[in-house]
Amino acid sequence: MKKAKIEELNQITRLFKRIDIENVETPQNYFNFVGTLDVFPRCLTEKESLDLINEDYNAKHIDKYISFFELCMTTISEPVYVYKRPLLGDGDSRDDSELCKVTTIDEIHPFIISIGREQCFYNFFWKDSRTVVIGNFDLSLPIYSDVQHIHTFKACAADSELFIRT
């Protein structure tokens, strides 16, 4: 894995409007598809969440997410750009963040595991597919994409026993 070149950072920023895309309040203004990559095919009720999401939840499902990203990397022949988003209060600052260019499956594993442990969150950008997956709590990951590319990501999700729901 390498640090992305300044030109690549500029391309990502120009294409996605900003690198900290998790702060976009109305992503539907920029993307044709806004959804969530999740273990469940629908949004859970508060009671269901309390019953189903516990301290073992992430460990139980992280392999599905690893499979999803592996399938995406083998199906979509383009590098993945990964932007580190420190959790508030973890001692990191935005100044420590950088955009990395990931080209192999082995390179992406630590990022996914870190999200599963909720140690740090990352934004995963597929530049040519104009798609971004945003790290989040409880492995409920927002995904923004163009309609013409979302079918590939949905197929990878289904093959990994995950759902992309709107």
Detail the topology: elements first, then pairings:
Blueprint: E1 2-3, H1 6-16, E2 33-38, H2 46-52, H3 57-75, E3 80-85, E4 99-102, H4 105-116, E5 121-126, E6 131-134, E7 141-145, H5 147-159, E8 163-165
Antiparallel strand pairs: 1-4, 2-7, 2-8, 3-4, 3-5, 5-6, 6-7
Helix pairs in contact: 3-4, 3-5
Protein name: SMI1/KNR4 family protein
Structural features, described:
The longest helix has 19 residues, at 57-75. The protein is globular and about 45 Å long. It starts with a strand and ends with a strand. Strands 1-4-3-5-6-7-2-8 form an eight-stranded antiparallel beta sheet, covered by helices on one side. Helix 3 (57-75) runs antiparallel to helix 4 and helix 3 crosses helix 5 (147-159). The chain is an alpha+beta fold and 166 residues long. The chain has five helices and eight strands. The protein has one domain (2-16, 31-161). Strand 5 (121-126) and strand 6 form a beta hairpin. The model is unreliable at 90-95 (pLDDT under 50). The chain has helices spanning 6-16, 46-52, 57-75, 105-116, 147-159; strands at residues 2-3, 33-38, 80-85, 99-102, 121-126, 131-134, 141-145, 163-165.
Compressed to H and E, one letter per element, the order equals: EHEHHEEHEEEHE
Task: Tally the structural domains.
Answer: 1
Number of strands: 8
- Give the CA-based shape: globular
Query: Roughly what fraction of the amino acids lie in strands?
Result: 15-25%
Report the structural category.
alpha+beta
The largest sheet, given as strand count, sense and whether it forms a barrel, is: 8 strands, antiparallel
Task: Indicate the low-confidence ranges by residue numbers.
Answer: 90-95
The neighbouring-strand order within the major sheet is: 1-4-3-5-6-7-2-8
The residue fraction in helices comes out at 25-40%
Number of helical stretches of at least 4 residues: 5
Oligomer: single chain
Tell me the radius of gyration. 15 Å
Distance between the termini: 32 Å
Mean pLDDT: 91
